[in-house]
């Protein structure tokens, strides 16, 4: 694990010299090297003093590397405008290093430190390359929600150390119970996902962030909460069965309400951001069942949502660069202006509504079966949640692609080869993984 970390650290001098495409190519290279280091074991491996890897951390580390490469590929406007491109590269490399350390940590305290450190470069992305003056308020929301909820987590980690005498993730097995301790350990991760009622920081951050900030927020940072829940639940297993129903019902009902919010959104990025909250509500429900099938399906949906939502934000940014607006009213009739992009809108929208053969289908079908087997009463909520998930995706696709062009432009605007490559690198892994899904579920 240390060799990949050293590779990322030694990219820093290239960021200072502003070697844009060289940094992008080297991050592609380390992604492919990491791809072929799949952990063929049931438990932790590649262990050192601070870092290790199992199947869950492997998938999320690879997702982090992949999304950060695509962030650089999507942000060529920063390079062309000359607005501190070297510092932008440094922020991206620092962010992927923090995420790598977060998912590879084998100690709870180091996980907490890197978990909080990953917010710093995200805040720099929003404040430095955001679009509107309101980005300062969005940054305050981001820090306020996450830091306020994560302070009790630090207290809970210290209490674990005083009770069990160890913070190694693979050595922690039960022994610590209590309602207040349970809330302290779970709340920070539920806010990070985010759960309904504490989700208001996410649409604000997405709307004000640049395309790179939206990609890393939707692609990886929302998965930190799910990863943290999977890591701390072995400690909370004796207490989590009784309290899990609260978060499960709140996540599913909140996902249903947020799906209704999506039906009345006029901002393209805001619609995609709210859809992330709805999908994460199902992930919370699957994790809270504490069943094998629920955990596997939640992990699959986290990976699928990271790729699909990041690709949709890239598509909205491509339209924004042409029209200068994210309003659905202005962006209507894109089929007349950019017919070559309509296919990518269709493919990624189909993945967002869990159409085959995407990985979203596997994750949602597994979550539906695990939640219904947990309680038959959840079937009514899940029916409406699945229906409105398809409804707001169709609303987004039909309203943006069909109709008359607001600006009166009917000329054909072709996309760049970089944009087609960017969208292909989102869509292809999303539909390729399902070919070996039995192997992935077996190892998880």
From TrEMBL:
It comes from the Eukaryota. The keyword Mitochondrion applies. Keywords: Electron transport, Membrane, Mitochondrion, NAD, Respiratory chain, Signal, Translocase, Transmembrane, Transmembrane helix, Transport, Ubiquinone. Residues 1-102 form the NADH:ubiquinone oxidoreductase chain 4 N-terminal domain. InterPro entries: NADH4_N (IPR000260), NADH_UbQ_OxRdtase (IPR003918), ND/Mrp_TM (IPR001750). GO terms for biological process: ATP synthesis coupled electron transport; electron transport coupled proton transport. It is a multi-pass membrane protein. It catalyses: a ubiquinone + NADH + 5 H(+)(in) = a ubiquinol + NAD(+) + 4 H(+)(out). It is found in: Mitochondrion membrane. GO terms for cellular component: mitochondrial membrane. The chain crosses the membrane at residues 7-35, 55-74, 86-106, 112-131, 138-160, 180-202, 239-262, 271-293, 299-320, 332-355, 375-399, 420-443. Residues 108-389 form the NADH:quinone oxidoreductase/Mrp antiporter transmembrane domain. One of its GO terms (molecular function) is NADH dehydrogenase (ubiquinone) activity. Residues 1-17 form the signal peptide. Its EC number is 7.1.1.2. Core subunit of the mitochondrial membrane respiratory chain NADH dehydrogenase (Complex I) which catalyzes electron transfer from NADH through the respiratory chain, using ubiquinone as an electron acceptor. Essential for the catalytic activity and assembly of complex I. PANTHER family: NADH-UBIQUINONE OXIDOREDUCTASE CHAIN 4. Belongs to the complex I subunit 4 family. This is NADH-ubiquinone oxidoreductase chain 4. The lineage of its organism: Eukaryota, Metazoa, Ecdysozoa, Arthropoda, Hexapoda. The gene is nad4.
């Amino acid at each position: 694990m240390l060799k990949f970390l050293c590779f990322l650290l030694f990219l820093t001098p290239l960021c200072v010299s502003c070697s844009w495409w060289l940094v992008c190519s080297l991050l592609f290279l380390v992604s492919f090297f990491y791809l072929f280091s799949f952990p063929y074991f049931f438990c932790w491996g590649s262990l050192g003093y601070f870092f290790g890897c199992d199947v869950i951390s492997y998938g999320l580390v690879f997702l982090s590397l992949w999304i950060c490469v695509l962030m650089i590929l999507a942000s060529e406007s920063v390079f062309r405008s000359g607005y501190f491109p070297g510092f932008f590269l440094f922020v991206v490399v620092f962010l992927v290093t923090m995420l790598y350390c977060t998912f590879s940590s084998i100690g709870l305290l180091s996980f907490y430190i890197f978990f909080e450190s990953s917010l710093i470069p995200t805040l720099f992305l929003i404040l430095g390359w955001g679009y509107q003056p309101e980005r300062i308020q969005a940054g305050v929301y981001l820090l306020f929600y996450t830091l306020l909820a994560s302070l009790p987590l630090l207290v809970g980690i210290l209490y674990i150390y005083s009770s069990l005498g160890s913070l190694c993730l693979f050595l922690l097995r039960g022994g610590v119970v209590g309602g207040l301790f349970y809330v302290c350990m779970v709340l920070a991760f539920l806010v990070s996902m985010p759960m309904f009622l504490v989700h208001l920081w996410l649409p604000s951050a997405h709307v004000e962030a640049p395309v790179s900030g939206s990609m890393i927020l939707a692609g990886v940072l929302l998965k930190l909460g799910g990863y943290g829940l999977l890591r701390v639940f072995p400690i909370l297993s004796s207490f989590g069965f009784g309290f899990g129903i609260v978060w499960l019902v709140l996540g599913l009902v909140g996902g249903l309400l947020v799906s209704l919010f999506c039906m009345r959104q006029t901002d393209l990025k805001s619609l995609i951001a709210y859809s992330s909250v709805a999908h994460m509500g199902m992930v919370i429900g699957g994790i809270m069942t504490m069943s094998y099938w629920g955990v596997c399906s939640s992990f699959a949906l986290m990976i699928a949502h990271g790729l699909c939502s990041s690709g949709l934000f890239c598509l909205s940014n491509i339209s924004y660069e042409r029209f200068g607006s994210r309003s659905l009213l202005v962006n209507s009739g894109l089929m007349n202006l950019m017919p070559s992009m309509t296919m990518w809108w269709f493919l990624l929208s189909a993945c967002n509504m869990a159409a085959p053969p995407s990985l979203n289908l596997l994750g949602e079908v597994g979550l539906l079966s695990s939640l219904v087997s947990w309680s038959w009463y959840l079937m009514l909520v899940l029916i409406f949640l699945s229906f409105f998930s398809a409804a707001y995706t169709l609303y987004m696709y039909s309203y943006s692609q069909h109709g008359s062009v607001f600006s009166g432009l009917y000329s054909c605007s072709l996309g760049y080869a970089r944009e087609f490559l960017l969208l292909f690198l989102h869509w292809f892994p999303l539909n390729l993984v399902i070919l070996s899904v039995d192997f992935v579920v077996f190892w998880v």
